[in-house]
UniProtKB/TrEMBL annotation:
Entry annotation: catalytic residues: E1088 (proton donor/acceptor)
Cofactors demanded by this protein: Zn(2+)
TM annotation in the entry: none
Originating organism: Salvelinus namaycush (Lake trout)
Domain named Peptidase M14: residues: 835-1124
Biased composition (Acidic residues): 367-390, 1161-1188
Keyword Signal in annotation: no
The protein, known as: Cytosolic carboxypeptidase 1
Organism phylogeny: Eukaryota, Metazoa, Chordata, Craniata, Vertebrata
Amino acid sequence: MNKPKMTTEKGVPSNSRVLMLLGQLERLNREAMLADAEIGRQITAKILHLIQTQEKTRKEIMSKGSSGMEVILATLENTPDLQTILNILYILNELLTVGGGRRVGVFVSKGGTGILLQLVLSGSKESPPSEELMLQLHSLLAKVGPKDRKFGVKARLNGALNVTVNLLKQNLQNHKLLLPCLQVLRVYSSNSVNAVSLGKNGVLELMFKIIGPYSKKNTSLLKVSLDTLGALLKSKTNARRAVDRAHVPVLLYIYQDWHRNDTRHRHMLIRKGVLGCLKNITNIKLGRKAFIDADGMRILYNTSTECLPVRTLDPLINTSSLIMRKCFPKNRLPLPTIKSVFHHQLPHVPAGGPVAQLYNQPLGVDDVVDESDDNDDVETENDTENEEEDKDHHAMNDDIETDINKLRPKETHSRPFEELKIYERFFLELSEDFQRFNFDNPKSGVTATAAASKSQRLIIVPTAQALPPKYPTAAPLQEERHLAKGEQPHPEASPLAPAPTPAPVHTLDTINITKDHDGCCDHSQVRPQPGQEQELVQGMERVALEGTGPQGGAGGGGVNRHYRQPPLLAGGVAARQGGGAEETLAEEWAEEEGGEGAVLEVPDTALLLPLHDPDLYVEMVKSTRSVPQYSEVAYPDYFGHVAPTFREHILERVYGVQRTKIFQDIERLIHPNDILDKVVYDLDIQSCPVIDDGESLKFNSQFESGNLRKAIQVRKFEYDLVLNSDINSNHYHQWFYFEVSGMRVGAPYRFNIINCEKSNSQFNYGMQVLMYSVQEAISGRPRWVRTGTDICYYKNHFSRSSIAAGGQKGKSYYTMTFSMTFNHKDDVCYFAYHYPYTYSTLKMHLQKLEALRTPQIYMRQDVLCETLGGNSCPLLTITAMPESTSNDQICQFRNRPLVFLSARVHPGETNASWVMKGTLEFLMGSSPLAHSLREAYIFKIVPMLNPDGVVNGNHRCSLSGEDLNRQWQSPSPELHPTIYHTKSLLQYLAAIQRAPLVFCDYHGHSRKKNVFMYGCSLKETVWQTNISATSCELHEDLGYRTLPKILSQTAPAFSMASCSFVVERSKEATARVVVWREIGVQRSYTMESTLCGCDQGKYKGLQIGTRELEEMGAQFCVALLRLKRLTSPLELRNHAHLLDVESDLIETRCKVTSSPSTYVLEDEEHSFMEEVDYSAESGDEPDIDPDTADPHDNRLSDSESNNHRDSLT
């Protein structure tokens, strides 16, 4: 016998018996001797025997480099002998049964699929076809099909599809052959064209002949049939066919029968298969209607409820939940229009964009829902958490800027210098010679804040509800004229009016008022000052404050305070009156007008909150202008917030909480008689927004930064809440701030905010809402605390119109739900998305900071411009005074590098203001570090870029209805005055060659943890794309990374790993990118602070609070000082007091692993044990965080990362 020409792998003996047999088989093929059937049978039988008895034989055939598979397939293709074919099929079955997908992959790559399909076709022509042959062929195809991407197409073109269907029809009782045929059909059906074809051939009806009620027999066959049916029903054509033939009630009956009888849960996969069929049918409108008509909601609700105690049945519960949510009839959001309830007429309407569409919308158009939100062509639900990831994968790099010319800073200035010269008035420090300044009495000549305008406006504090109509109305505010109105700014000094002398108050530990069951106050625990007992127990619901405010000079006129005397409640908090009590309150008001004013007792937090003064706050409110003309002040803003000393951990998600909440929602449809559906608060009813019948909670949001449009009592202790859109917009529902009163102690209240728009939220990952209790405040604990249990965020059944969804139909809103138990009877509590920080708070803080100024501090506050709403936009200049008027000192003063900071362009990102507060307090501090920082830089600060949005409770926009952080490329002086003038300041600096060393815009991030930065880098942007560029084109100083690196070493909350320096197309109009490109500031950043908490460093596992946010602002200052040391070491060595800086930095340093720039996903969260069951529709979200959303995860390769890291160290 000639030596076979078989190729063998190294290490495999060439005289192996199986290789010799394969060599003989190869020679038969080559010499066309297969006509000798007996020899082929013998050789293949021997190979089969070796494979069945010796594991090493299989390895030899399938080993890398062996041509055994080619020989076997060639023989299979060429031999006409049935027994030889069967022997080879047995061999292949043995080979492919073990060894995983690699062996199947080899088989497919060698063309095995086509050979098998050809054998199916040729075998079917025999009369009758060999049952054994068909059995083996279909068994092999069932193994091979899932690994061959073109399997369905090959089968259809080959004709094998019809062969399998005919075989199935002829062998419905032959379970041995039926099983592999069904397995192959299941693979065929994964191809949509095949599925439609199979449906036309009656395969759906065949499946319903096989599946049926509970039976212990043939469960494997039933499981495969259900899987096949489920695959077929993914086709909408087949789903309609199933509905037309009334198969939905049949499936529900089958599911119920298996649920009843499968008591030991041994056949969960069969039950899941039935649910899979129902899930696919209900992807179409007809299927959902048939499901509802067949009482499917009640059936699945009841069966799921019975499954809840068994953890292993969670897959059934989750799928049932998904089906029920999908079939839940889409409801209309309970609003007359999705436009904001408040309106502000713009000076002119933009030519295009969402605001233009809003103004051009025809009258009478229903913008809440579409005519048909249930669209057959739209997949209304996708049961995958990874949809966002899938979209990200397909859209990889789509948003990254690839035009190198756009990534280079502009070299020419877009505006003539003459036009910019008017901004010289804001930079007096660059030309100041201090000749008139008396260094013996420095206070005499320092520029100061312009005095706030005085107003006769009536202010109600604290708040509980809207003013009854008979109350006096507020007088109009006096006009202020600023740069936006065409007038030049007045930077001349004008001293501040001193703060009013506060009335006598109790310290925090002296106020403890309780109430007995008869409604009378018990004063046994009250230790008031003499003569004040009666005033202390008066109702604290509201106080009317009138007058012109504090006058100049010591002992100036104070504020007249008038009490009304409604029923007394625990803690001295009065119940809100409504409805019929209106006249009584008006009479009380009239009586008090003629009497002597009482004194409101406010917790004395002066020592803990040096920048807070309730009387001063009210004065600031008087000059704040809002579209709704708010006349009330919220307790938390009046009392102030003292950060708690205890840690607030990120909430651990309770297993099954989302499912429980969804089931409670579904119960609304199952048990409609249990639903109250009672409106208790509605801003759309301007005359009487509060409905008070004594049986419901009372809500209020009519105060500065408040946002709650409507409250509906759904059940006794459950309320649906609707947020108001941003003014001149029809969306952006995220920020909320409202008051609740009239609660019962210990009752389990549930609150649902039902018109959220984002597809995911940190509420799913441990973030809690903020609550402020007035009872706690007057008991000595005035603070916002994280609260709420059973918090989750999921898609709901309220339809979102295409007008609100950017033209896309079939979208839904999302629900943020939390549960709450109140601890104090008749308390007044406030809930907020994040720690509120109002515009009036900013004005109060700035005035208090001015009072803290020492002779060594140069501080000037200018009015940059006036906003659309008539509010002033403050501009601060802070640096150190020169030591004398010598030329050297003045020259050093004028030539200090500038740092430009801004914050709060997005009103809902209140954490940005708390970080800014930390920065301002540090800059105005008396520490050696603060003094050194002032000597090192001139700070220009715009602490609130969007005062109007903040005042009116917007989440994202200004009164123009536009995101101001998307207007930096070409801002309008009329519509975007704060951006226009801030950019003009920067353009002026660039024109005089004094561009800032650092620009940083403070923001908040709603979807990520920690604090981090976004910067701009040409190199790192190009690295994330496929564009080719020479090294000279990518020349770039890596100094942009220095500041974030310093922060990662010094600031506990800062994460370098979350930073990104990639420039995206969608962010080209943001402050960060425009200042980098147009002003030429290399260190141009957005600093993002989490709304949730940290997952690394010192604060790992903790929710972030105001203390940590303010600390971040201070640490930013320290990092700037170290940046100065790194860039100008010789200059700073002259300052002896800086020797301690390094040690201070080391003390505060936390271990943070530095990493290369990564392009991170918006939601970098660990998956839960429980599936987060909602569709991620981020692609259609119009409100992705500016400068925050990074919709890709394009990480550098290991080699690139290493090279990158090496180049930076």
